[in-house]
Amino acid sequence: MKHSEILNAYISRLTVADLENLAKQSRACTHAAMNLGSSSQIEAQAGLYAAVCNAVDNLIRHDREIISKIVNSSIRGEQ
Asked: Could you tell me if 21 and 54 are in contact, meaning their C-beta atoms sit under 8 angstroms apart?
């Protein structure tokens, strides 16, 4: 699979607010992993997953369809 094409398809269609929230939650996960206990790490990971789910939920149907086409094309090895 061409992961860069898939990641770009998502990033290109996310709002700035969603991207900022993902970055914030990702930093929280890194901080928890490096400095806190396992329960804090699990909580931070749950926050990141919630941010991912929210960002995907905010995509419009047309963008989801484009992303699906890119993913399917990548799985089939098409260019």
From this structure: yes
Dig out the tokens for 49 from the structure.
């997953």
DSSP per residue, 36-78 = S-HHHHHHHHHHHHHHHHHHHHTS-HHHHHHHHHHHHHHHHT-
Contact (CB, 8 A) for 48 and 28: yes
Tens digits of residue pLDDT in 26-56: 999 999 999 999 999 999 999 999 999 999 9
* Other residues' Cβ atoms within 10 Å of the Cβ of residue 2: 15
How many domains in the chain? 1
Residue 62 φ then ψ, to 5°: -60, -45
Count CB atoms within 10 A of the CB of residue 47. Answer: 17
